[in-house]
Amino acid sequence: MRRLGDLEAEIMDRLWTWDRPATVREIVDDLNRTRPLAYTTVMTVADILHRKGLLRREKSGRAWSYRPACSREAYSAALMRDVLGESPNPTGALAHLVEQLTPEELAALRTAIDSVDREAPGEDPR
Tens digits of per-residue pLDDT, 29-88? Predict the structure, then answer.
C-alpha cells in the first residue's frame, strides 16, 4: 500500500474524522476553508481513492457519498506492514522500531499483543 498524496490524505483525514459518508461538495466546502480547490479536482481524487479501494461510495441523489473502506488505524497498520515487508531484515527493523517507542507506546503494544494472544490461544497469531 502506497502512502497517500497530500490531497488524498486531506480527503481521507476528513472522512475518518467525520466518521460518516460525505459528498464531494461537503469535502470541497471544508477544504476551501484553508485553500481554494476546484470541485472537479476533489471529485477526481475521490474517484481515484475509490478505484484504489480506499473509499466506498453510493449514490445519494445525483451525487456520490463517500466513506472510508477501512479505519485510519487499519490503513496505518497496512503501511507499516508493507514497509516491514520491503526490509531485507524485517525482524531487525521491527526491533529498532520497538527500541524507539515511548513507554506509553510500548505499553499499548504489549496490550495489543496480549489481546491477540488471548484471541487465539495455542495458535501462533503471526
Answer: 999 999 999 999 999 999 999 999 999 999 989 999 999 999 999 999 999 999 999 999
Record the cell numbers describing residue 44, joined without a space: 477526481
The C-alpha atoms of residue 42 and residue 1 are separated, in whole angstroms, by 21
Residue among 7, 93, 89, 2 nearest 46 (CA)? 7
Report CA 101 to chain centroid distance, whole Å: 21
C-alpha cell read off for 5: 498524496
Domain assignment present for 104: yes
CA 5 from centre of chain: 12
Could you tell me the residue range of the domain that residue 99 belongs to?
A: 87-119
Number of domains in the chain: 2
Q: Which residues contact 39 (CB under 8 A, 6 or more apart)?
A: 24, 25, 28
